[in-house]
Structures are given as C-alpha cells and as structure tokens.
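We read letters as residues; the fold follows as tokens. A sample entry reads:
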Amino acid sequence: MPFPRECPNSISSATVSYWVLGPKNLAFPCHFCPSITRMRQIPTGAGIVTSLFAATKTEITWRSVSVGDDSPQIDFGDGSLLIYSHLYALPDGIRVEPYPSDRIEVWDWSGTNIRTESQGSEKRADSVQRRIIETLLADADAYDLIFDDDGSGEIADVVTLRVTEGLVQVTLHHCKFSSADTPGARVKDLYEVCGQAQKSARWRDRPNRMFTHMLRREKLRLDKGQSSRFEHGNAAFLKRLKASWQDYRYEFDVRIIQPGLSRAAITEEGLHLLAGVETYLLETRAMKLRVLGSA
C-alpha cells in the first residue's frame, strides 16, 4: 500500500495513527490518511520538524529530515518498524499476535513513587529505578556488574553483566514512570519505553563500544564530584572485560519496567505494541523481552 500524503486537520476514523521516537527519546504522535499517496508527519511536540518520505515494503527513500541527531523510529500497526532509514517488515502473510497479558510480571510497588522514574546521583529511594536496583542488589551474586546508566544518551536505565566461561550475559533494564497515580491501560505510558527498548538493541552489535560508553559515563559522573554509576562491580572489572571482549560470546535481553501498566486493564493496542517490540528484538538481535508492571 502506498504511503499517504499530508492529512487534513480533522483526523477521521480512517486515519492511521502511530508514534515517532525523536531526539532525546521524545515520543510524539503522527497520523496519516490511507486514501492518499504521500505522507507528512504531524508532530505535536515542540522542537520537532516534519519529515517527508515515501516507502514500500522493501525500500525507504528519505526526501528530507530535520529531527536533530537521531533519526525517528516509526512503529507501524502491522508490526513493521522504521529504524533510521531501515524498514523492518514482517514477511507477507505473517501477523504479529498480541503479547500474552499473562506474561506481564506483576510487582508490588509499595513504597515506590511510581511517578518518579530516576534515582539521580542522590539515589532517591522511592524512585522506580532505585526499586529495580535494590531488587538486583538483593541477588548481587547473580551479577558481576550492576550499572546505573540513566540520563541523556543512555544504553538503558540499568545495565547488568554476568560473566561465565566464554559468555557475557547482558540485561538492559528500561524504566518509565507512570503518568498517573494508579496503574491503568494508558498506552502513552508504553510508547516511549518501548521505543527505548527497541533502540537499545543496537548495542548488541557493539559490546566493545558499550563498555567504552560505560567507562566514559562513569568518568564524567566522577569528574562532577557525584556518586559512582557502579552499583555493584567496578571500573577495573569493566576495563579488564573490555580488553578481552573478543574472547567472549554475548547474550542480550531486555526488560521493560512500567509500574503504571496494569496487567488486568491493558488493552489490545497495548498488547500489540509490546508484541511488536518483542518481534523486533527477537528477529533482529535474538534478544528476549520481559515486561514488569502492576496487577
């Protein structure tokens, strides 16, 4: 199906809506009309400039783009993804089934302010990120390294490494705050964290660069006189691993953490969104996905 052109100001029920993940992981909605032949993105976030392109299932041609340092990521309803200038399309006749709701892991978030995402350098105790770190630290023997990479340019909010003979197991934990005080079925609470999970898959291809990134981030933090990013393990361990990184195989997996997501209330739209993320991670990088939410 050809991609449509600029939509009218009035969005009808025939309009297809999707989300673009732009610079600094800012998500904003776009719409297009399937009855026309070209597309114009309609941003609602400040500072984002329209991109115009044409596409088929096998070819993407960018006509113009002005979205800062990061090209946008577009999630289509059939499970296809546009990452930078690459279209990842499912084979013809293949349909992504909704993510099974019973696979959403229910956590008790008592004592956590689900509307506060980051622990910051002060290690805020009631943040979602700190709750995840404390849980990991309770089983610290299972990890050789637990690293807080939260902030602009992050790999993930929390990165864990486990090194066994010839194998490095990497888990990327992506946390997101809830937009409301209680869990629900708000799809907007999923869009940004799902986009972050997909974008982080690129680190699977460059573990040596990931180690360099982590060491650089630690140095920048310490140079500011702030607390270390290492929650468990240290820079010396990571430097040794980086020096011999080619001697190992690597397995990556991803966790999406959204306490504002209710397993009981999630809609089919939310389940399809999670299914698209899982399909992309598995098909492109053989990375497994876990989703943590609320009851």
In short: Confidence is low (pLDDT under 50) at residues 1-16, 31-69. The helical segments are 128-137, 188-199, 207-223, 235-243, 268-285. Residues 268-285 form the longest helix (18 residues).
